[in-house]
Amino acid sequence: MIMTLKLVGLAFEVNTSYQLRKKRDTGQKTDEEKLEDELNDVNPGFFDIFHYTFNYIGVLTGPYYRYRTFKDYFELPFTLESPWIEATIQKFMYIPMYAVLFLLSTSIWPFSYALTEEFDTERSWLYRFWYIWPTFFMFRMRIYIGIVLSEIVCTMAGFGAYPECTTPLPGMGPSNNFQQLKELTENPMKLARETLNFDTIRNINPYGSDFCTTFREAMKTIRNINPYGSDFCTTFREAMKHWNICIQYWLAVNIYKRFPSKKYRTFVTMLVSAAWHGMYIGYYICIGCAPLYLLIVSAAWHGMYIGYYICIGCAPLYLLIEDVWFKLILKDYKGQFLKLWEWIFWFFKMAAFSYLGIAFHLLSIRNVIHYYNSIYHAGALIGAILYLSGLYLLKAKTAKEKKKTAIKVDITSPVEEKKEL
Fold this sequence. Notes:
- By secondary structure, this protein is mainly alpha-helical.
- The chain contains 24 helices and five strands.
- It has helices at 2-26, 31-39, 46-53, 67-75, 78-81, 84-92, 95-108, 117-121, 125-130, 132-157, 178-186, 188-192, 208-211, 227-232, 236-240, 245-256, 265-277, 281-288, 290-297, 308-313, 316-330, 338-362, 365-374, 378-420, and strands spanning 162-163, 196-197, 199-204, 221-225, 306-307.
- The longest helix is centred in the last third of the chain and has 43 residues, at 378-420.
- The N and C termini lie far apart (75 Å).
- The model is unreliable at 211-221 and 291-304 (pLDDT under 50).
- It is found in: Membrane.
């Protein structure tokens, strides 16, 4: 799956380099822009492509990185100056906690229990519906362990290290100060005094996805996930930005920004994500319904299982719901109950993730439908109620604001006329 991203991404990198060379001959650019084009110019041969594709760093679990990053690893002197020991220790220190929580939760709430006859007949509806929470918790712990370990492979090799002054972005690498980047590669003494980080290969932020707080910025180059951010941020849309960060860069650059229709680009991007995860319907339900959840508050990777499509395909639906309620409450709200509303949004965000995420576990259409039938599709019904009620309230709020504006205009108009007289 990672090789799919690499090869498709490389094709776009080569195409972008070609387009830049064409523009270079006709357009007027600054020295910084010319240097950026020069650093991003790629024209690999067969063996270059072979080595990039099968490089042991990230070959199985990622994170995704550009050919430019791969080339810089061998040609630029940043690897030897990188703080790889500090970065590795800082990433590894959380893994024992994730592992203990994962083993503890799986022993208390085994996922296989959700598919048993006892679960259907002897457990109450409330318990069956609540079971999505421990299931999603186990899923998060497992993902955090796997992706953080994949980042550690990069940091131990010194892969993806760049000077902080260039503002490295996950999946992309340096984003500015290319003149300074060139000077550092040519001046070892100056480079020794520079601070380097691994932001390019950071792929997840568990703390940030949950609590809207990120890890230390010095690890971003190979960052692939932000566990804290994905779990504790307020909205569903923001939490998605902390998951598979490098993969999201690939989707944004190669699918979202290149798709000609702005109206459908989000849907197509989600569809490609679901197809990349695999053909299980659970992926499409989980990811495809996410936009609907976003309305409330604002997958060719894993195989051919329907669960992927359900999980990924329904994500846009929640985004629709989230967006409605975000505009209704959080957008301009500054009252004393703001923090309370943020926690309410957080609860619904985690509930939506859990409800859609269980499709990732169930995978097959038979298991997915069986479970959702057992809870009477409560999540979908609640989502529909939230969306329709939010839409009604939002229209009423908009009409009320327009009425106030019209009254204000009527009051001020006579005063202005008198002044003119």
